[in-house]
Each structure stands twice: as structure tokens, then as C-alpha cells.
Amino acid sequence: MSSAVSLSPSAPGVAGAGASNDHKVPPVADMARMIGLNIPVACLPDVVANTALLQGYADLVTGFVLPDDCEPAYEYAP
Predict the structure, then answer these.
(1) How many CB atoms lie within 10 A of CB 72?
(2) Is the Cβ–Cβ distance between 40 and 2 less than 8 Å?
(3) Where is this region: Disordered (predicted)?
(4) C-alpha span between 76 and 53 (Å, rounded)
(5) How far apart, in Å, are the Cα atoms of 22 and each of 10, 39, 55?
(6) I need a labelling partner for 52 at 20 to 30 A (CA). Which of 2, 9, 18, 58 fits?
(7) Which has more pLDDT, 24 or 49?
(8) What is the C-alpha radius of gyration for the chain, rounded to an integer number of angstroms?
(9) Beta-carbon neighbour count of residue 55 at 10 Å?
(10) pLDDT > 70: what percent of the chain?
(11) 24 pLDDT tier (thresholds 50, 70, 90)
């Protein structure tokens, strides 16, 4: 795994372009190493930025509270 990065991207100052520091970004390099994925050093800032963006969306969805009396949507019609 010579092309994988050995530093943890959650360290301060490692966020990608346009990333927000509002969310704690998981250590991308550590997660990639666990699943055997090589992330080139040049791609790491963008991978970290995407991870932070997706974490923000996940937080938004999981933080949305639906009332118990809300009717389910049985069909989707775009």
C-alpha cells in the first residue's frame, strides 16, 4: 500500500477545498486501509471533502424528526 496515505485526515488543516469544519470527518486513510483501498495522495483532499459533505447530508437526514402520525408515501411519482 505504498500509495495510501499514512496520516489521519481528521487532523486540523487537512480538510479539502470547500470543506466545513462543522463536522468531524472520519479518518479517511484509516478507513481506506481497513478495506484495502489505496487513495493516492493527490486525491486525498477531495476524498476528505466528499466524506465531510456526505456526513453533513447524513446528519441532516438522521436529524429530521417525523411525527408518529405522518402518513407513509406508498408511491413515488416524480
Answers:
(1) 5
(2) no
(3) 1-23
(4) 26
(5) 12, 24, 10
(6) 2
(7) 49
(8) 17
(9) 16
(10) 67
(11) low
Per DSSP, 42 falls in state: G
Label residues 14-49 b or e (16+ Cβ within 10 Å = b): bbbeebeeebebebbbeebbeeeeebeeeebbebbb
CA dist 29 and 5 (Å) reads: 6
Q: Cell 446528519, residue?
A: 59
Instruction: Please state the domain extents for the chain.
Output: 28-62
The values of phi and psi at residue 4, to 5°, are: -75, 150
**Where do the H-state alpha helices sit in the chain?**
28-34, 44-62
